[in-house]
Amino acid sequence: MNLWLGLVTGILFGFVMQRARVIRYDKQIGALLLKDMTIVKFMFTAILTGMVGIYLLGDFNYLTVTGRPFVIGGAVIGGGLFGLGWALLGYCPGTSWGALGEGRMDAFVGILGLLTGAAIYAEIYPALSPVLNWGNFGNITIPEAIGVNHWFIIIPFVAIGILLFIWFEKKGL
Hints:
By secondary structure, the chain is mostly helical. It is about 75% helix and about 5% strand. α1 (about 1-20) crosses α5 (about 95-100), α3 packs antiparallel against α8 and α4 packs antiparallel against α6 (about 105-130). The longest helix has 27 residues, at about 105-130. The chain is globular, with a radius of gyration of 18 Å.
């Protein structure tokens, strides 16, 4: 059942990405050049909505909010490789699948690279493990890390997000 749920939500997410035009190559390049903030606004909307929703559900005891592992080595190396791949291809992993779904064959090359990179990573992980696991702070959230109630983080993040959206719109981004 979980596989079907994942398939359905993945298709719905792809549909939303396509309708928001974030899988378009020109939007991807515009974001990388800081000339088109469509993708940034799309992702901020998802992050802020998710942050508020998850913590509200946690406050009403519908779920338990736990942190994810925060590891500096993995974040720096993984983020660098992600950014490099995005800059070279013009698609991130999620948008490359959406672009392929629209028939853009350039995305297929990226997906082959993504799958090849994942296979190589799986093979060399044991040798890279000490570097990737450097700076492991364990499962922690930002509020836990600084010892404050989560709403002291969420409310300013949402306010900054709204101000950024307003600024982007005024600048035509």
